[in-house]
């Protein structure tokens, strides 16, 4: 089987993107939204070098996203594929420069090899690189912020004595009905104040709304 056919068949399968005990990759869409990068140049903002130097004194590049260290070359390949690339495959730099992550300089190395001659699939053989470049040039849609409606004002509540209609406090008797007298204690009637009303307390612990003092209190 030719290498390009093997890779295409692998991409059509349900493959693993990381090995056991490795930190899972964050959502590729989330990384694309959060990271500033140039697909054409193969550069990600905030990337740093790591690992041992090659014979030219250059190292691979990586960046942090979603709590995971991500190789720039694997991210560029995955962005072109539209999902994270298979973990069983590696990315080879054609010009042997690990800092040159342009899509045209990357190819997928499969485990299917013969001695030192590794089979390699060019990224350009798998995807339309020009189409992916045009895709990245499209403006990223802005997040829609849904306004939270303001709460409706509570209706105006008129202060009314809580025991106005509470007859449980009235003494119960099988004998004669007790005589009602006013004690002289009063409360202003907020909603009737404009008309001169006033609440008057009785000896039965009840309240009466009157617009003039009772006769017994006008002495």
Key descriptive features of the protein:
219 residues; three-stranded antiparallel beta sheet; 11 strands; alpha+beta; single chain; 2 domains
Which helices and strands appear, and what pairs or packs with what?
Blueprint: H1 3-11, H2 28-34, E1 37-38, E2 43-44, E3 48-50, E4 60-65, E5 68-71, H3 72-81, E6 90-93, E7 106-114, E8 117-122, H4 123-126, H5 129-137, E9 182-188, E10 198-202, E11 207-210
Antiparallel strand pairs: 1-2, 3-4, 4-5, 6-7, 7-8, 9-10, 10-11
Using the alpha-carbon principal axes, give the shape: rod-shaped
Structural class: alpha+beta
The percentage of residues in β strands lies in: 15-25%
Contiguous low-pLDDT stretches (5 residues minimum) are: none
Query: Please, how many domains?
Result: 2
A few lines on this structure:
The protein has 219 residues and is α+β, with helices and mostly antiparallel strands. Helices cover 18% and strands 24% of the residues.
Explain what the structure shows:
- There is one protein chain.
- This protein folds into 2 domains: 3-137, no CATH class; 167-217, no CATH class.
- The chain is built from 5 helices and 11 strands.
- Helices cover 18% and strands 24% of the residues.
- It is of the alpha+beta class.
- A hairpin with a 2-residue loop joins strand 7 and strand 8 (117-122).
- The model has no long low-confidence stretch (mean pLDDT 80).
- It has a 3-stranded antiparallel sheet with strand order 3-4-5. A 3-stranded antiparallel sheet has the order 6-7-8.
